[in-house]
TrEMBL record, chains A, B:
Organism listed in the record: Populus alba x Populus x berolinensis
Keyword terms of this UniProt record: Magnesium, Metal-binding, Methyltransferase, Transferase
Protein name: Loganic acid O-methyltransferase-like
A single GO molecular function term of this UniProt record: metal ion binding
Domain of life assignment: Eukaryota
Biological process, per Gene Ontology: methylation
Pfam families named in the record: Methyltransf_7
Length: 368, 368
């Protein structure tokens, strides 16, 4: 459809595959926790906002209700979320139309092409109430035919940019991010570059989905973000990222990894504020904001085990580090990280100011 | 949807994954050759039989034309076939409706859950004209919502049974297939058991597709078969299978593999006659036979290299043998097979009577 080559996200964006002890499947309890707290909101959203007056998309009397999870990674989180969505849609449908023929659900699991779809498929729940399909490709481009989805869902994926903004790795740019691996928020030019990239990516995402989602259809987005007035470097996630960055700097000084590689490494992540998100969605114009809530993850308030934290972190960032530093150095990096994490445990978990927030957003596709 | 557990095909049914020298992707030139000779028939079938008067399946003005390949394995054959189908449908559409909005294509690649979808997705053509999705699961059950497919395609997959018929591995049954690993056609009770299983499987396949394909939609089937009045043991494929069986018997006698395992090994394959197929399709009643042709593969008439033949054979049967005999014995089996194949080369390729045929079938879903 589109020129795929310009739309390809590096394979490193994929979470760790398989179902072994280091896999995302076994190390995504933060993301699962989010679903637990978002579940009631999602239920309420579907109950109050879903509109079945939209005609059936098929010429037969049977309605196919198509759902897509954008950035599903490997189960079980995606299966859990989809099951809850299907249940909520069914309840709403049966409450509205008694004695009507059953809805048939088709669920599309989307993630980057390098995602481990083999494991995803092998672990699909056997007693699911839907027909399943996998859709490979970046969600910053089109993935589905026009007006074929009724509900889109994306959890903990949209803070992943399509690429690191070029300026931050350019030694000649005022936005050069020397000494940091993330958009900490303290360097204005860096923040500007990251924010522009996020705006651009979100706009691509909304435009693609606007084509694919039927008028009146819903989109639920859960995305990592910042509380109002808080910088990334002041949040728990930001502090962990800084710690990883400082490990890389230490290791470069010790001659274990190359300094140049450390200088050119930046995380393709951007945590946004409510204001930024609202502005992007309103300017885009294809969707109406039905709800915008802040999710406060209980895990952010508890002190967690170092090993647990490091393995969760590794399941997400291993591919990224591997692609940049090479396979051999990744073990060393995470060993060093675990050590430094333990040594700095108290400052990493020094209280409430360390929280980031996650945004829950419910959008409705405008009817053109 | 259905009880998936009763519908699960063992993982051994999957062709060899990846894209290495032993993969199906690199060892499927027989199957590709079939597409080359079937291509013109397929084109003609679509030109003459496809009916665009059927309303668009979407409420928007844009039509989504959904195609599924049942038993796609890993590319490139499936991509080649799908490209040809899309081209033919587009041509027909544009000839019928000038100045109409473009069709959008959604192509579903189906195979058993153990198929290597990761490789399939990574090798998807970048400039494809369709939205791609992978659908895991056996095609002997439902895989899609009702009336959502417009064209189904299945090439070289339907001669794979959902299971080996139980009687042929039962030492107490008159259908016990002692001394052979296939339905050679010479033992009547064995042939009866295999034929019944095939009938049952084809019927399940047709019933599932009848639900999924829109009234008036097409199904193209290419399936291995027998010329009229010819037994499996008289065909090239049958002779190869017998040779493999005799290798297993030899190796059991030499004490390399267990005799009991050899006795209980049977191929879940059935090659059918035109008459059988016609009868099954007519009795099923959901589809009308628009065309039934015999494809004569040019490769059957040329003497081929032993190494080439063995590697093609291995890409298909490795999983099956591995599951039954264990990984260690598979290398030994194929080494022995290559040796015996070379020694018996002339009798294996002893001329025209050795051919099997492939059937090309075009079905149209009846409008209820």
């Amino acid at each position: 459809m589109e020129n795929e080559e310009t739309k390809t996200v590096p394979k490193s964006w994929a979470m760790v595959g398989g179902d072994g002890p280091r896999s995302y499947a076994k190390n995504s309890s933060y993301q699962r926790g989010l679903l637990d707290i978002a579940n009631e909101l999602m239920n309420e959203s579907i109950r109050e906002t879903l509109d079945f007056k939209i005609p059936c998309s098929d010429s037969s009397n049977i309605c196919t209700f198509r759902i897509a999870d954008f950035g599903c990674s490997v189960g079980p989180n995606t299966f859990f979320a989809v099951e809850k969505i299907v249940e909520a849609v069914e309840q709403k449908y049966h409450a509205q139309f008694q004695n009507s023929p059953p809805l048939e659900f088709q669920v599309f699991f989307n993630d980057v092409t390098a995602n481990d779809f083999n494991t995803l498929f092998k672990t699909l729940p056997s007693y699911r109430k839907y027909f399943a399909a996998g859709v490979p490709g970046t969600f910053y481009g089109r993935l589905f035919p026009k007006s074929t989805l009724r509900l889109a869902y994306s959890s903990y994926s949209l803070h992943w940019l399509s690429k690191v903004p070029e300026e931050v790795a350019d030694t000649k740019s005022p936005a050069w991010n020397k000494g940091s691996i993330q958009c900490s928020g303290t360097a204005k030019e860096v923040a500007k570059a990251y924010s522009a990239q996020f705006k651009n990516d979100m706009d691509s995402f909304l435009n693609a989905r606007a084509q694919e989602i039927i008028g009146g259809g819903l989109m639920v987005i859960i995305v990592a973000g910042l509380p109002d007035g808080i910088l990334m470097s002041q949040t728990g996630a930001g502090i962990c990222n800084e710690l990883l960055g400082s490990c890389l700097v230490d290791m470069a000084k010790l001659g274990v990894i190359s300094e140049e590689k450390v200088d050119s490494f930046n995380l393709p992540l951007y945590y946004s504020s409510v204001k930024e998100l609202e502005e992007i969605i309103k300017n885009n114009g294809h969707f109406c904001i039905e709800r915008m809530n802040t999710l406060n993850h209980p895990m952010m308030k508890t002190k967690i085990d170092v090993r647990f934290a490091v393995s969760q972190f590794r399941a997400v960032f291993q591919g990224l580090l591997e692609e940049h530093f090479g396979r051999d150095d990744v073990d060393k990096i995470f060993e060093y990280f675990a050590k430094k994490f333990a040594e700095n445990y108290d400052s990493v978990f020094r209280g409430e100011t360390h929280q980031h927030v996650d945004h829950f957003i419910l959008l409705k596709r405008n009817i053109d």
